[in-house]
Amino acid sequence: MKTSDATHDRRPLEPPELVYLKGETRCHYTWSTGEVVGSFLGALRDHARILGAVCSGCGRVAVPPLSYCEECCSAMEDYREVGPRGVVMSWTRVAAGFPDAPLPAPFRYVLVKLAGADTSLLHLAPDDERVVVGATLHPEFRKVRRGAITDIKWFVPDESAEERTREQ
Amino acid sequence: MAEDVAVVGWAQTVHSHEMARRTDLGLAYSVVNAALDSCGLSIGDIEVVIDAGSDFLDGRGISNCVAADALGAHLKEESKVAGDGLLAAIYAYMRLRTGMFSTALVVAYGKSSQSGPSAQSRSMAEPFYTRPLGLDALAAAALQARSYTRHYGVDGSAPARVAVKNRAAGVENPHAQLRTAVSLGEVLGSREVAPPIRELEAGPVSDGACALVMTEGSVARALRARPAWLVGVGMCTDPYFLGSRDLQRCTPAAKAARSAYRQAGVFDPGRDLDLVELSEPYAYQELMLCEALGLCDEGEGADLLASGTTTRDGGLPVNVSGGVTCANPLVATGLVRLAEAAAQVTGRAGPLQVRDAKRALAHSSGGLAMQTAACAVVER
Fold it and tell me: Which of A31, A119, A148 shows the shortest C-beta gap to B241?
C-alpha cells in the first residue's frame, strides 16, 4: 500500500508498473458416485475386485463402468468381474512430479485392457522397462482402501507380482 | 432461410506466452473492433454475438456474464460455447442460415498465463476415474501418439519432421508466438516430455484471441467484392474415456470432415482443397489428421509429409501459418484456423499467401487427445 500527501498534484501521471492480483477459486464438492460408479469403487474397497458394467443393448463390457453405454446409449445395469490381469495397450512416462500427483515421479500411465473387458482402463504403473505395449500386468491393491480408483496402487508386470508373492 | 453465409472480417492478436498488458477480456476486446474495422462494419451493425471462452481459464463461472460487454453484446442476443472458437463460428453459421439474423460477431479468447495449461486440462478430468490419477492433456496425447505410431509403424522421426515443417512456416507468420525455425536434430534431441512426445513436438501455450464477422450472402456481397464463403461445416465427438476410443485413428475428425465435404462438394480433398489449417497441439496429430481428413490413406500421414505435398510450396500446404506448433491460444486456436483459411481464399494472407488459393479447410479439436473435432470449408 502506498500513501501520498501530494493530493493537489495535477501533473500527468506516469503509467504505473503492471498490477497483478492473486486469487483462487475454492469450491468443496461432495460427489455422490451413484450406483454404478459406487459399485465399482465399493468392490475395490471391500473385496479388492474389479467390476465392469455390461451393456443391456450391445453387450459391451466397460471398465471402468458407467451407467450408460458410450456407444449405443443403452443402460448398463449388470456387472461382471474382470481381470485382474490385463494387457498394456499404450503407455507414457511422467518424469516430474506435480501437485496432487498420484505417485512420486517417475511413474507411467498405462491403458490396460483387463481380461473380459471391451475397453481399456487408464491407470498407473512403475517406470519399469517391462511396462510396454503387449505386456501383461497385474494390479497391486493398497492395504488400506477407501473406495477410490487409487485403491489400486498401480499395475505391475506379472513377473514382479509373482516375485513379490514369492518373497513374502 | 439464408442460402449462403460468408466470413467478411477477421482479426487475431499477436499470440504470446503472456500478454500482461491486457486482461482476458481486454484480449477479447482488442480483436472485436479490429475485426469490425477489417470489413467496414460497426458494432451497431451486429445482430448476434457468439463467443467461446473457458470458465477455468478466466476463473469465473459462466464467464460470459462478465465477458459479453467487452464483446460488444450490449442488448443483443449473446451465447457462449464452452469449447473451441470454431464451434462458435459454426453456431453463428447456423443462426445466419436460419434467416433470423443477417450479421454475427464471433469471438474466442484464452489467457492461459493466468492459471496454467496443466491445471486447465486436469480440471477437465471427471472426478471418479481420471482426476485422482492426475492425467493432463500432454499425457493423454502421449497415450494416443503411442497407439497411433505403433499401430501403423510410423517412423519415430515423423512427428519431429512435422514440427520442423511447421516451425519453418511460422517464421513468416506475424501473429505466431514462435517465429524461429528448428532443425530436425534439435527436435529429435529435445527432452521426451511424455514419451513418445518430445518437447519441441508440443506447441507452446499462448495468450491470444480471434474474432470473425460473418454475414448472410447479400450483406457479404455488399461489403466485399470477394468474401470467404462458408460452404461446409461438420462437428463430431468421441467418447470421453481414452480407453473407450479407437486411439489409432481420429474418427471424429474424419466424420466432421466428411460432413463439411459433402456440403461443400469436395469429392477428392487432396485435389479439391488448396490448403488446410489444422489444430495440432502435438506434432503427431498432424499425421493422424491428414489421414482422417482424407488427404492420404490410413497410416500414410508420414508418407504424405515425406513427399513434400504439405509444405508451403507443395501441392496441398498444411499449416502454412505454422499452425498450433507455433501458437496455441487455447479456445481461440480453431477460430484462428478459420481466420487464416478465410484470409487465404480471399487473397489477404499477406506473407503467408498461398498462390491462387480458392478453397481451404479449417479444423479444430477439443478435449483430451482430440476427443472432439470441427471442420469448416471456405472458398472464394
Answer: A119
> Given CB atoms, is A87 within the 8 Å cutoff of chain B?
no
Within a domain: residue A9? no
SS3 A123: strand
Lowest-pLDDT range, A154-163, B32-41, B62-71? A154-163
Q: Is the pLDDT score of B305 beyond 90?
A: yes
CATH 3.40.47.10 corresponds to the domain B135-203+228-379: yes
Contact across the interface for B133 and A111, Cβ inside 8 Å: no
Give the three cell numbers for residue B77: 442476443
pLDDT given for residue A14 in this prediction: 84
Smallest CA–CA separation between A70 and chain B, in Å? Answer: 6
Is the pLDDT at A160 greater than 80? The verdict is no
Cβ under 8 Å to A: B residues 116-175: 118, 127-130, 132-136, 139, 142-144, 146-147, 150
Q: Which of A23, A91, A122 sits opposite B243 (nearest CB)?
A: A122
Place of cell 480471399: B346
Question: Do the domain assignments include residue A114?
Answer: yes
Region(s) of chain B under CATH 3.40.47.10: 5-116+206-223, 135-203+228-379
Confirm whether A11 is domain-assigned. Answer: no
Query: Which SS3 state, helix, strand or coil, does residue A167 take?
Result: helix
Tally C-beta pairs within 8 A across A and B: 93
pLDDT digits (tens, 9 = 90+) for A3-25: 555 567 788 888 888 999 998 88
Confidence of residue B206 (pLDDT cuts 50, 70, 90): very high
- Picking from A93, A109, A148, the nearest residue to B132 by CB comes out as A148
Residue A167 has pLDDT above 50, yes or no: no
The residue segments making up the domain with residue A135 are: 34-167
Is the residue at A55 inside a domain?
yes
How many Cβ atoms are within 10 Å of A116's Cβ, its own excluded? 15
Q: What is the CATH number of domain B5-116+206-223?
A: 3.40.47.10
Which one-letter amino acid corresponds to residue A4? S
Q: Which helix (H) or strand (E) holds A137?
A: strand A136-141
Three-state SS for B29? helix
Contact list, A123 vs chain B (CB under 8 Å)? 133
- ipTM computed for the complex: 0.93
**What is the grid cell recorded at B279?**
489444430
User: What residues are paired with A110 via a beta bridge?
Assistant: A91, A123
Total domains in the fold of chain A: 1
